[in-house]
Amino acid sequence: MRYLTKLIESLSIWLIRLGGFLLALMVGLICIETLLDIFGLGISIPGTSQLKGWLGAGAAALALGYTLLINGHLRTNVVTGRLPRVVQRTVDALSCLVFMFFFGFIAGEITFRAYSLMINGSPAEGRGLVLYPFIFLMGLGYAGLALIFLIELWKTLIPERSEADELG
């Protein structure tokens, strides 16, 4: 399982790098569009607002797994913080299991929709934009998030050696 954990962590790092690249593309597109407007060249890039939205959504989706991996999220345990350790671990395990299946389902559904758009054509192709690659990337981001919940579930069910000694 240690190998699988390292593999998923490595995948998560590559996903956030890809998300950062998409974010840089979005910022670059905004800068180019602003410069064209400032200099009054009258050149308009078709579909830029739609493209900026998809780039931002892709960057956010790809960052989800890494954010969970480094515990960069807000976690409240107002209710479970006062429960016995065994009950806390049970609630954590059930939460990880539910979230793993939920985000796995979301990843599959998004990927299916992207595949459908790839086969049938995208509504935005009339503007020269092909959107299904961005939708595939969003599905990949949610799949990465589901895999991180798998790691969290594993860590909850089978604690590290030092933590197992504390539990007695």
What does it look like?
By secondary structure, the protein is an all-alpha fold. The protein has one domain (2-72, 83-167). It is 76% helix and 0% strand. It contains five helices and no strands. The protein has helices at 2-38, 48-69, 85-120, 132-157, 161-167. Helix 1 runs antiparallel to helix 2 (48-69) and helix 2 packs parallel to helix 4. The longest helix is centred in the N-terminal third of the chain and has 37 residues, at 2-38. The protein is elongated, with a radius of gyration of 21 Å. The mean pLDDT is 85.
Please give the largest β-sheet.
none
- Report the C-alpha radius of gyration, rounded: 21 Å
| Helix fraction bin | over 70%
Poorly predicted parts: none
Derived from helix and strand composition plus strand pairing, the structural class reads mainly alpha
